[in-house]
Design a protein that fits this description.
alpha/beta; Rossmann fold
């Protein structure tokens, strides 16, 4: 099969398993959508038993190179993550480079990279071979500060951030187009001399047929369930959530928090009487769990996949009025926005507990927002537009 588009996975995670969600999940779904118009090949590290090629459809093949993905994700410590990152630089890039040269003979038109560390050398080679390059940056850091409140960063993380910025900004200057999830990343990248005109914002998508409101068993009418979906890390706001849960024991006795995720803060939530710790939830059972809660909390500056999946299940979002949230959440339309204070969160939650008609309206509009803005068909078309624009350039 002649390949039009080559997708290069970052190197830490494999395709198809959904172990990490996030970037890899988005890349796979975009590749599936683009395979309706192009012949697509995904290059990925392998996980578990090595299998060289997997045919997903007549226009989409996943090919595993002989490079192992991270055994534990998220990595148990930063040292193991750094060691694996340098092995990506030394070995994974070489395998990608060889594959790129091989595919050029079969009229490869464009390569989609998704990680600066595994993409810098293939980018140089692709430029020499006159292959178009699209770079997908799926993370906010190191381009922008993801934390809502000031957070101390270790010297090792600062050093790693500087290294990644050097490699990433060099790559961004060479590629034909850059796709990011949000305006925060776009602004951050542009500060390094990259033209904004070649940086495109395309939000994450959701399968609105899988993530939909599902009828669940009835519960006590006096109980109000609040969900949180995401890694239990400082970056995702786990410390804010923990403080809220402790205060809510007395101030919101009818509230129970349901937590879907894992991470270093896990041990603090497991002992709280008003928390039902669910942990990591399978992709296909997550819609049912999300449908069981009344609202979702978000402590990020912009939308991730968790927020969009919640909207698709008809769940309003309560978030702080920071970053892009005022643009993404129309207050009292698909959720509630409040100042970045615990007291304000308590007030917003109380408002929805005491106003069933408002909660019902927000739920209906949340579902509509997901269908009309974030369905994978819509997101896939946005990617297709960028790809076709790049291919038309001389």
């Amino acid at each position: 099969m002649t390949i039009d588009i080559l997708f290069v996975f970052p190197g830490a995670l494999e395709a198809l398993t959904r172990r990490g969600g996030g970037r890899e999940e988005r890349l796979l779904r975009v590749a599936i959508e683009l395979s309706n118009s192009f012949h697509v090949l995904i290059i990925s590290p392998f996980y578990g038993r090595y299998k060289k090629a997997i045919t997903h459809s007549s226009n989409l093949i996943i090919e595993n190179v002989y490079f192992s993905a991270l055994k534990n994700y998220p990595p148990k410590n930063r040292f193991s993550s750094i060691i694996h990152s340098f092995s990506i630089i030394l070995f994974y890039q070489l395998l990608i480079l060889i594959k790129t040269v091989e595919l050029k003979k079969d009229s490869l038109k464009i390569i989609v990279l998704s990680d600066a560390l595994s993409g810098i050398i293939p980018t140089v080679v692709a430029k020499l071979l006159n292959i178009k390059i699209v770079y997908y940056e799926g993370n906010i850091p190191p381009w922008a500060d993801p934390y809502i409140f000031p957070t101390k960063i270790s010297a090792l993380r600062k050093l790693w951030r500087s290294f990644y910025l050097t490699v990433g900004s060099t790559l961004c200057k060479m590629v034909d187009a850059i796709i990011v999830n949000d305006g925060l990343t776009r602004e951050g990248i542009s500060k390094y001399g990259i033209r904004k005109s070649k940086i495109f914002i395309i939000r994450p998508g959701v399968d609105t047929k899988i993530f939909r409101p599902i009828s669940v068993a009835t519960r006590l009418k006096t109980e109000f369930l609040i969900g949180f979906i995401g890694r239990l890390t400082e970056e995702k706001g786990a410390s804010i959530l923990l403080k809220l849960c402790k205060i809510a024991i007395n101030t919101l006795p009818q509230v129970k928090f349901m937590i879907f995720g894992d991470g270093p803060y896990k041990k603090y939530f497991e002992t709280l009487q008003n928390v039902k710790y669910i942990g990591w939830v399978n992709y296909y059972t997550l819609p049912k769990w999300l449908s069981s809660v009344d609202i979702i909390l978000s402590f990020q500056k912009t939308f991730g996949m968790g927020e969009i999946e919640a909207l698709s299940c008809g769940k309003p979002i309560i978030a702080f009025k920071v970053g892009e949230m005022p643009m993404l959440i129309q207050d009292r339309e698909i959720g509630l926005l409040c100042p970045p204070r615990i007291e304000s969160l308590i007030e917003a939650i109380s408002k929805l507990i005491n106003d069933e008609s408002l909660l019902r309206k927000l739920s209906e509009k949340a579902r509509y927002e997901a269908i009309t803005h974030y369905d994978w068909k819509i997101v896939g078309q946005q990617w297709r537009t960028v790809i076709e624009t790049v291919l038309q350039k001389e």
